[in-house]
Write a structure and sequence with these properties.
Blueprint: H1 22-46, H2 53-63, H3 66-126
Length: 154
């Protein structure tokens, strides 16, 4: 709610003289400081009236024309719609990419790791032979090696 207060102008200026003396200035400064002290007490009385934020917004309803309120409401509705749409779209895309990665990329990474382990095992088995000659295998395995290569499941 708005409270109107009439401000009385007690200062009377002499229209005939363009210039003031130092004494006139000192008197006007003193009278202004007295008025400021009086006006400070007026503001203290206004502080007693408590107004909530909601009440202030409701008071703005009376001040802002209906066309402007409709434009503001429409803009806010559009922004909230597109924001909600964007958040839902980002969530759905995140779900698609995450599940795709788990179903395609994770098994591929496991298989690549298994291939590297197999190559490493084969290079360790053939590493002790100079000239690239391999020892004869007995039963599919080099002599002295028991078991199956790592990463292979029977």
């Amino acid at each position: 709610m708005v409270k109107l207060v009439e401000i009385e102008d007690d200062a009377v200026f002499d229209d005939d003289s363009q210039y003031t003396t130092d004494e006139d200035e000192n008197e006007s400064i003193a009278s202004l400081s007295d008025k400021e002290e009086e006006s400070d007490s007026d503001f203290e009385e206004d502080d007693d009236f408590e107004e909530t934020f909601l009440e202030r917004v409701q008071a703005l309803k009376d001040i802002i024309p209906i066309e402007k309120r409709r434009a503001i409401s429409s803009a806010f509705s559009n922004i909230s719609y597109w924001g909600t749409f964007g958040i839902h779209l980002a969530g759905k895309l995140g779900w698609v990419f995450t599940t795709s990665a788990l179903l395609v990329v994770f098994p591929l990474a496991l298989e690549t790791d298994r291939d590297k382990m197999m190559q490493q095992w084969e290079s360790e088995q053939a590493g002790g032979i100079p000239g690239g000659q391999q020892q004869p295998m007995i039963g599919g395995m080099p002599p002295g090696v028991a078991g199956s290569p790592p990463g292979l499941v029977a």
